Amino acid sequence: MGFFTRRLIPRKVRRIAHPIRAVKRAVTPKPVKKVLRGVSIVRNPLGNAAYAVERSVFTKKRKKRSSPAPVYRHGKCPIKHRSSEVAMRCKN
Ligand SMILES: [Zn+2]
Predict the structure, then answer these.
(1) 0.85 exceeded by the pTM?
(2) In the chain, which residues have pLDDT < 50?
């Protein structure tokens, strides 16, 4: 019987029924969470450095790709459209 009654009670109500758990969640201060996150980064400096390198490589690639990107302009429209279709659809 216990199983069925538990299934029938919605989640929110169940959370209210367990005040200790809710309080624990609310009490955990955000600064502590931030510190814990920082610790994890410090603990894993190699992975973080690798990620930084990867990120820089990708940003460089993106920059190279975006600079020669074609721009479609028409009339007095100040917008640089990315494709001819968009420029055609533009009402400016
Ligand atoms: Zn336009």
Answers:
(1) no
(2) none
